[in-house]
Amino acid sequence: MKNRRLKKAPAELELTAFINLIVVLVPFLLSTAVFSRLAVMDLNLPAQQSAVEQIKGPNLQLEVVVRADGLEVGDRVGGLIQRIPKVPLTAGGMQHDFAAFTSLLLQVKARFPDTTDGSVLAEPTTSYDELVQVMDHLRSAVRPSPEGGAQTVRAVLFPNISIGDAPVRKGG
Fold first, then answer.
1. CA 127 – CA 59 distance, rounded (Å)
2. Domains held by the chain: number
3. DSSP 3-state assignment of 167?
4. Residue 14 maps to a domain
5. Is 39 part of a structural domain of the chain?
6. Which domain does 104 fall in, by range?
7. pTM, two decimal places
């Protein structure tokens, strides 16, 4: 008896399903990939202490930090301009000294008349009312009229206000 062998043709690879998978998978992976960007940050380090007259440079980056015991007005580049402590009320309790705050802001605005930006940085315990009062005084002030008399003029100070969290105090 003869041995009969079946002649089998070599099997062909079926690549259609694999190519379909790649066609779908490549765009999906490209659309979800996160591409990293190389960025350079320009950092301005603050000075130790400064006053309104000692603010360096033509650009002011005004920051008002609302603390539990007062207001800290400063320049992000130049450092602290002035610290305004809270004043006692006649009925008891403490309140921010908005008269001194407004006076200081008018001095700063006289030195930098084109600056309209200011930042208010508040501690987590700052009440909403305190935050709104500080923003109102930062936005505008009422001052005596240049012509004299009893008339007053509303002066626009720093109407573009940004809000953020106050930095943690050193040593506490």
1. 31
2. 1
3. coil
4. no
5. no
6. 52-165
7. 0.63
